[in-house]
TrEMBL record:
Protein name as annotated: IS3 family transposase
Matching InterPro entries: InsJ-like_HTH (IPR055247), Integrase_cat-core (IPR001584), RNaseH-like_sf (IPR012337), Trp_repressor/repl_initiator (IPR010921), WH-like_DNA-bd_sf (IPR036388)
Organism name: Faecalibacterium prausnitzii
Domain of life, per lineage: Bacteria
GO molecular function, one term: sequence-specific DNA binding
Gene Ontology biological-process entries: DNA integration
Lineage per the UniProt record: Bacteria, Bacillati, Bacillota, Clostridia, Eubacteriales
Pfam families associated with the record: HTH_28, rve_2
Length: 119
């Protein structure tokens, strides 16, 4: 017996990704909060978001978007919200995003190691 595919709205996807990237919870906590079936699904949305791809809502066999199309999928209502999101992303990029080309380190860890070697 096959499982029925669950459809998530684009708004839910962007909110879940935004919460995770701003440090409001772990993958599991965010999945629980938004009733997302698996952390793998959330990781895929994060990967798409970081690759500047639109998170769409898919229904049935037809892949159609719901709502309006935007460049990055999020409209900020205030300057403070925009600044907070940018700061959260910079923190994620520098301190929590492991990179294979840096031997599975964050950019900040690689920088500290390079400074220690130079000293």
């Amino acid at each position: 017996m096959s499982r029925k595919e669950k459809s998530y709205s684009a708004e839910l996807k962007y909110q879940a990704v935004s919460d995770y990237l701003s440090g409001k919870g772990s993958l599991r906590e965010i999945c629980r909060k938004y009733k997302i079936r698996s952390t793998r699904q959330l990781r895929n949305w994060i990967k798409m978001y970081n690759g500047h791809k639109e998170l769409k809502c898919y229904t049935g066999g037809n892949r159609m978007t719901k709502g309006r199309k935007t460049t990055y999928g999020h409209t900020f209502t205030s300057r403070e919200q925009l600044i907070s999101t940018i700061e959260s992303y910079i923190d994620y990029y520098n301190n929590r995003r492991y990179q294979h080309r840096l031997f599975i380190q964050t950019p900040m860890q690689a920088h500290v190691c390079a400074m220690n070697r130079a000293a």
